[in-house]
Design goal:
- The chain is of the alpha/beta class and 373 residues long.
- The protein has 13 helices and 12 strands.
- The protein folds into 2 domains: 236 residues, Aspartate Aminotransferase, domain 2 (3-Layer(aba) Sandwich), CATH 3.40.640; 133 residues, Aspartate Aminotransferase, domain 1, CATH 3.90.1150.10.
- It has a 7-stranded mixed sheet. A 5-stranded mixed sheet has the order 8-9-12-11-10, covered by helices on one side.
- The chain starts with a helix and ends with a helix.
- It binds pyridoxal-5'-phosphate.
- Pyridoxal-5'-phosphate (PLP) binds next to helix 3.
């Protein structure tokens, strides 16, 4: 089956008892046992839930992996992966990561004796330490849309596990397991659910041993999503292909519009031929580049973000409606200012999550807001 077909059907077959085409939301906290320990695979709602199991199967199928696991948020999924490590282990992470990932590493997990260091995401050569157990990649990155060459890095990973945060690309545009990654992590809050009505996280792997460890951690730590949230992500997946195409087409046109605008200093979008990672993105993302872009403004950022009428100023992305964010004071505020500056996240950087509204309406909105900036 091709992706679009899988996305509509993944994880579910028509219910043999009722004929239901849409899966039910199994809202129950627990399940009856015939005798102690004899149950249908669902001993307790934190350990397993039928609606959650459908979502876990669906995302594994779409990513081309064997196993999926669902969590209460993207960060809860990330933290479960970090729990695979022990004190003294080292994580080599790309330098342009989501601010919350950086905060988890630096302000939470460093205190537990883990080591973290950062390398330029665009570098195709990495230097592993003896104790490097995880390599952490985001591609495209948040907020500078840097592109990592996942296959090139996978070839150098030795016995370290390669984790790829596939939130921006989604499996419709990029499938990291096929490029050599061991674990995929998602904030399903974003494109996978797509409508801005869920907080969630997902993990996919084909490695049975890693899966068993993560499944143990999912239950032992307990940061699991509710059944209704799982159902909403499942529903979102059905239209993922359509939405990603529309997001990408709108973002490409907006990136080109902004590149030609006198009030814009620089545009970051992998679909632009001038973007440093464009050639890698072209092959790695199958010729579509998602709906995220950032740009540096020659003007007043505050006035700009307050003047858009369709783009809403908010901390989220990947939803059908268009959003603006000011990374320096919002999504990446937890990175110290000097470290932010070193990473190239300037005060005049604006991030756009381009939605699926009519392109011309979006361009007119940006046009009028740029006049106020
Ligand atoms: C790339 C990326 N990964 C992970 C996360 C964290 O996900 P959540 O907000 O669902 O915890 C985010 C959130 O913005 C993100 O942008």
């Amino acid at each position: 089956m091709r992706f679009e077909t899988k996305a509509v059907r993944a994880g579910y077959q028509i219910d043999p008892v009722t004929g239901a085409i849409v899966p039910p939301v199994h809202q129950g906290a627990t399940f009856a046992q015939e005798e102690p320990g004899a149950h249908k695979g669902y001993p307790y709602g934190r350990t397993a839930n039928p609606t959650r199991a459908l979502l876990e199967r669906a995302i594994a199928e779409l990513e081309g992996g064997r196993y999926g696991l669902a969590f209460a948020s993207g960060l809860a999924a990330e933290d479960a992966i970090v729990h695979l490590l022990k004190p003294g282990d080292h994580v080599l992470c790309c330098d342009d990561v989501y601010g919350g990932t950086y905060r988890l590493f630096e302000q939470v997990r460093r205190h537990y004796g883990l080591e973290f260091s950062y390398f330029d995401t665009t570098s195709t050569e990495i230097k592993l330490q003896k104790n490097t157990k995880l390599i952490w990649l985001e591609s495209p990155t948040n907020p500078l849309l840097k592109i990592a060459d996942i296959a090139a890095i996978a070839r150098q990973k030795r016995d370290a596990l390669l984790v790829v945060d596939n939130t921006f690309a989604t499996p419709y545009l990029q499938r990291p397991l096929e490029l050599g990654a061991d674990i995929i992590v998602h904030s399903s809050t974003k494109y996978l659910s797509g409508h801005g009505d869920v907080i969630g996280g997902l993990i996919v792997t084909s490695n049975a041993e890693i899966y068993e460890k993560l499944k143990f951690l999912q239950n032992a730590i307990g940061a699991v999503p509710g059944p209704m949230d799982c159902w909403l992500v499942l529903r979102g997946l059905k239209t993922l292909a359509l939405r990603m195409r529309a997001h990408s087409e709108n973002a490409q046109a907006i990136a080109e519009f902004l590149s030609a605008h006198p009030k814009v200093e620089r545009v970051y979008y992998p679909g632009l031929a001038t973007h440093p990672g464009h050639e890698i993105a072209k092959r790695q993302m199958h010729g579509l580049y998602s709906g995220m872009l950032s740009f540096e403004l020659k003007g007043d950022v505050k006035k700009f973000v307050q003047s858009t009428k369709l783009f809403t100023l908010a901390e989220n992305l990947g939803t059908v409606d268009s959003l603006t964010t000011h990374p320096a004071t919002m999504t990446h505020a937890s990175i110290p200012p000097e470290e932010r500056a070193r990473r190239g996240i300037r005060e005049n950087l604006v991030r756009l999550s381009v939605g699926i509204e009519h392109l011309q309406d979006l361009i007119e909105d940006l046009q009028q807001a740029l006049e106020y900036a």
